[in-house]
Amino acid sequence: MEHPENSEIYKGLTVNKGIEQPSTINPYRRFHRSNKRPQLSVGEYVEGIVKGNITLLSQAVTLVESTLPEHQAIAQEVIEKCLPHAGNSMRIGISGVPGAGKSTSIDAFGLHVLEQGGKLAVLAIDPSSERSKGSILGDKTRMEKLSVHPKSFIRPSPSAGSLGGVARKTRETIILCEAAGFDKIFVETVGVGQSETAVHSMVDFFLLIQLAGTGDELQGIKRGIMEMADGIVINKADGNNIEKAKLAATHFRNALHLFPAPESGWTPRVLTYSGFYGLGIKEIWDMIDEYIAFVKGNGYFQYRRNEQAKYWMYESINEQLRNSFYQNNRIAAMLKIKEQEVLEGNLTSFTAANQLLDTYATLTHKQ
Ligand code: GDP
User: Which atom belonging to ligand 1 lies closest to the Cα atom of 241?
Assistant: First the structure.
């Protein structure tokens, strides 16, 4: 309604229309009282996730990432109940050194795949996140368009623990996302070493982003990482960098010929593109589509997923044994003594290890 002072008789005086006063109670407040939030039941989480409820999905992922045993217990039950609804997706690993253009590219790839329908989750494994307290990888602001897309879910890297622990949590998050109907999963990692192996062990297609350099780009990249790649893409093929990118692609193609043929029967391809200008994005996605059809046809898709499930079973055993061993107070005290004896040359490393393991076995046997 117009303000009465704005009527004709109040000449020379106008009162501007005010804005609506915000509520005195922050409507989002209740979402932040995570400590006081009544704990939902496993069934409520699962039901919400399967219905595609993003708030419940996020909360369940937080439980997966939590180090509290009671959170872990609920998380494991939720994961188990989500398993029958999971698995129906394309899992793509994306790796590249910082500055290679991962965020720019994921934004572009993501928008492209979402144009074809479906839902996309972007997860990350960043082993350095423990140090930086909160990962830069997966940070929503880096993927400007994708982060506001209603069909996308972007989650930064879990931040606590060893690489194995971080990777396990990401793998469990994949299951939750799939149960929530996300049929495309991107797992991003920085191309600096070990974390590639972890990502490779949970995806169907491993995409390596490279840049054209001065011609010696092949020297900086580890053989093992190249061998993992199902596709290598040279980014920033735009402006006067196009020729250099093409040349780099030729170098990579030649280098790939020197490796033994991959188990999948697929010949890894090398493409050039520009994430920033959106050039060659369709071709990359077509390649991934073609790969998935190829490995589904020859049975390798399921074989690789089975191998990965097995691998993660052993990884979990290793992680739990290691934690249980090193977190045992008696062992921790004994470790210091044995370490000293080894340093002084009074005991061989092997004998020290055996004595510690024997003690551990006795201690756990008594429990
Ligand atoms: P990340 O560290 O791998 O995530 O890389 P970013 O996506 O943040 O990109 C690093 C820099 O490269 C940014 O300044 C981008 O604008 C730029 N960049 C990314 N993709 C392209 C591209 O296709 N062409 C050009 N010319 N620059 C790009």
Answer: 26
pLDDT band at 135 (very low <50, low <70, confident <90, very high): very low
Nearest to 79 by CA among 183, 203, 179, 184: 179
What residue numbers bound the domain in which 76 lies? 39-85
- The domain tally of the chain equals 3
Higher pLDDT, 124 or 74: 74
The reply to whether ligand 1 has any atom less than 6 angstroms from the CB of 104 is yes
Distance 99 CA to ligand 1 centre (A): 6
Ramachandran area for residue 40 (φ above 0: left; ψ -120 to 50: alpha; else beta)? beta
Rounded to the nearest angstrom, the gap between the alpha carbon of residue 31 and the centroid of all alpha carbons in its chain is 24
Q: Is residue 28 part of a domain?
A: no
- Closest ligand 1 atom to Cα of 100: 3
The per-residue pLDDT for 185 is: 97
pLDDT in tens, 60-71: 999 998 888 899
Locate the ligand 1 atom nearest the alpha carbon of residue 235 and give its number: 23
